[in-house]
Amino acid sequence: AQSVTQLDSQVPVFEEAPVELRCNYSSSVSVYLFWYVQYPNQGLQLLLKYLSGSTLVKGINGFEAEFNKSQTSFHLRKPSVHISDTAEYFCAVSDLRDDKIIFGKGTRLHILP
Amino acid sequence: KAGVTQTPRYLIKTRGQQVTLSCSPISGHRSVSWYQQTPGQGLQFLFEYFSETQRNKGNFPGRFSGRQFSNSRSEMNVSTLELGDSALYLCASRGEVEQFFGPGTRLTVL
User: Fold this and answer.
1) Distance separating alpha carbons of residues A13 and A74, to the nearest angstrom
2) Per-residue pLDDT tens over the stretch A18-30
3) Which CA distances in Å does B32 have to A10, A113, B24, B66, B93?
4) Omega into B8 within 30° of 0, i.e. cis?
5) Under DSSP, is residue A83 helix (H, G, I), strand (E, B) or coil?
């Protein structure tokens, strides 16, 4: 069965510093990959998605992610974070075989002033 | 297009009661999924409905049930509420690939 691992439950980072949130998945077939963001007291909002093509995917709010098939990873990056990026970030994978979407446990991004 | 809407946004119940939550998906979306989100367990999948049929189900007790109507609106019901059912319940409708989430219903069980 497929699974998604977000290695860090919390990531503190100083404002204007770069950040990387890690995501690894297990699947032996083709997948679609997603990153969602959840601001306090809100639902999840799609940041970006990888379906096919270029392995570097750009999303909203200056975020980008790189699909690495050999390492089964889809890490999320931002070159310079802002206080407004404080949120929880979820990685998700959709297995094209059974069409299920599996979410990771989330990573809380804390922006330090 | 209007987004996914959920009602009510907040709900307070007592142990033993039952509750019904409602979700209206984005127009044209036929798949609706429900999730329970708690600080300790994270985002847990409850079930997915597609064209009025339950397509997938998570590992929750039978107290949790759902249904979908012909207009794709969905309801989930929790009977005999327990303190541990306090959570944010999220509904998501699915387009071609990704899911779109509603704002959630915050359920507090006293």
Assistant:
1) 20
2) 999 999 998 767 8
3) 30, 40, 9, 10, 4
4) yes
5) helix
